[in-house]
Batch of 4 targets.
Target 1
Amino acid sequence: MSSSPEDQYTAEPFVPERAGLAELREAAAGCRGCPLHREATQTVFGAGAGDARVMLVGEQPGDQEDRQGRPFVGPAGKLLDRALAEAGIDPGETYVTNAVKHFKFTRAEPRKRRIHKAPSLREMTACGPWLAAELALVGPELIVVLGATAGKALLGSSFRVTQVRGTVLEEEIHGHRERLVPTVHPSSVLRADDREAAYQGLVSDLGVAARVLS
């Protein structure tokens, strides 16, 4: 029976009690709650306003985020900021984070570009205690769920973003009643054949979130 912490698949032992966001971020840097920490450059914790009315939850950090240590700093993050502003939500007044805090990737060949790989349900569950702690501290009025993986992490494996995007859900999340607006992940807009239509769809969904907050 192996006793290494990553084999337990839970971040619980690494999450300090009664900590603020700064202490949480510091503690998360040493998280070994699942095997993903071995390959990633660093933990990418949430960032933004500690009293934000809206929390945006994505899937996991990408290549740029893994290198820089901050969420949503790559092309998808820039697109998200633009869409938020267009929908009437100030990006500077949000808190952004990911369901999984380490970059999971594959490489076709050594030293080649790192290709994003979707985290498993087990990895998402392992990382859940960090997200629960962030939610408890920020206490947002609304959670914007970015994409299928974030939706599964928050709402369970039956979540389908296409069925509920742009609607307001009320669910119990980590022991609290939360209002959520699901939409697509901004990286899917960058991959779309009709990028403009996909972008307008994202803005439209974020507009629903803006109306909830107004």
Target 2
Amino acid sequence: MSNRAVLEVIALDVEDAVAAQAGGADRLELVSDMAADGLTPTRATFAAIRAAVDIPLRVMLRAADGFCAGSAEEVDRLAAQARALRAEGAEEFVLGFLTPDGRPDLAAIETVAGELAGCRWTFHRAVDRAADRDQLRKALADLPGLDTYLTAGAAGGVEEGLPVLVAEAARRGEPGYAAELLVGGGLTLAHLPVLRAAGITAFHIGGAARPSGWTHPVSAAAVESWRSALA
């Protein structure tokens, strides 16, 4: 297996996607509406980005800000969006839902993930809001396709969560800990030495790829600087 680090970049549109690929991104997370921390993009947006780049795309499945899935009707609508994106050719996804008390919402997760036909998917930063991270991981361990956790180690971001990330990396292979750690959420270049020393090889950036702010597109040069740092 290659030790080359994976660099995933958030993309909102074709301009972002093309710049991220040019800068050396290995994979994109496709979202809409970063004011709500990333919601499901339209089928048309996915299709346009898929036509513009040739690196893997993970598509967000999330209907509203926060980590609760909402009503059964809202979950069904999200499942329908997943079916539509699958029909458009999407093969990788991002999702994750908690109950109001911070437990994994298995009914919602299984309903939406059940539309993915075994496609690979990431459980996103809802894990950082879970009442019990270990319990969540073990509860989800056997779900088809789950191969990644996007996490900062803590709700407050990577700086706060570094000890958790290092500890979880050391548990790789234990029940509930087979999925890859994809570190993101306040991630900076200064965090990389500790994370790489812990054996972590997958990293996720959003704002760091946009030095001028979220109202500006991804900077290929900013992505390239991360790619170089991860070489």
Target 3
Amino acid sequence: MYRFLLTRQWVILTLISLLLIPTMIRLGFWQKHRYEERSARNALVAQALDAKPVPVERVTEPGHAVTRKERYHTVTATGTFDTAHEVVVRRRTNDDDEVGYHVLTPFVLADGKVLLVNRGWISSDGPSQTAFPKVPAPPGGRVTVQGRLMPDETTAASGIKDLKGLPDRQIMLINSEEQARRLGKQVLGGYIQQTAPEPKGDLPEQISDPGKEDAPLNYAYMIQWWLFAAGVPYGWFVLVRREARAREEAAKEEPAAEAEPAAAL
């Protein structure tokens, strides 16, 4: 009855089913890994945002690479903004996905070291993309700022190409080593996304808190792939039984069809 399983059509169908099962199981484990990775990231971000602010020089120093655990930690610093050496970071979006610039202003500490401060987003609307845009001024004089610590940006991590030959005082990536060479000063590793004090007139637009990644969605995909993996052999079995019954019924009808001409004679 099941000799049809040796036909070319059924051999191919069986092989495809056998390949689909481990593939779907592996996809389920990949989604499980993504779920655990995103959950861990969300926990680290929440822990960093909830931690008590600390002076920036307790966390980073010139040449320091900001770690994953240090990222988003709230830090404070006291000094003065150096607007003469301010630059803008091209092709950055705000919460409404409008393309503009991030404003990066050196912040000179009491010991002469520099902290890079991303003061927020401004629109790129203007007479020219090559001219330095009009940037709202930061507070003058000695001031205390607060912000989320961020690692240096790289092309490998961000996917943003570090284009050369840009207009004056425009950059693609925020990198403390590059800025140290440009300024000729010691620059603390990484930079901060300013959260306080808030700008007058709401410009530049401060960068929003990092949102939570949708880890439960990966968990749902994990379950889905494993259900698919379990469903493949079940579906194969149903098709086999259906084919077997169809062939059995066809075999029963054949003798009856042969008997009718004989009766007529």
Target 4
Amino acid sequence: MSLLDLTPDELLTTTRSVRKRLDLTRPVPLDLVKECLDIALQAPSGSNRQTWHWMVVTDKDQRAAIGEYYRRAVQTYLTSEGSCAALYADHPVRHPEQQRVGDSVAYLGEHMADVPVLVIPCLDAKEAPEYNEAGMWGSVIQAAWSYMLAARARRLGTAWTTLHLMYEKEIAELLGMPDGIVQAALIPTAFSIGTDFRPAARQPLASVMHLDTW
């Protein structure tokens, strides 16, 4: 499959969390997922230990079981005070945006089981001794982001999700994961409906950059 004609900057600024525009009817070739994972393996890892693992789920029954756990987690999350849809309630611009995000999260909660490929980046915690949490998670998160960038370039949509971790133990048992393997995310992967994603609205750089002192 030909890659999208994107510059590095365009790729980095238009890789969106795709939920409602995931094509739930079109199969994703496993070889295409493997291409993206091969690229992910070029990411840095702590001390070059490369202690990551990648759980790729395509089986319909397993996807259904994971989807049910995710649906429950989404329901719990969206009714909590920390829900994305409840943030910035007094802000005339950001609150409507957050409500749209909440709506798309709810949609994915109902359709995670229908996504053709679920990718769970994992870390072997027994083989990744680090002095801090940043060091440990820094050995898998940037690789997962590389996977998502590679997927975008190949016309695939993805989303970074972690709500399934409310049921991490149950999902680990479902998938036969050994002790010591921790899950970093759940990345739904499907062809995107259209590829015309644009940069998202973000806070001005001046509000978050601190030069020399805070």
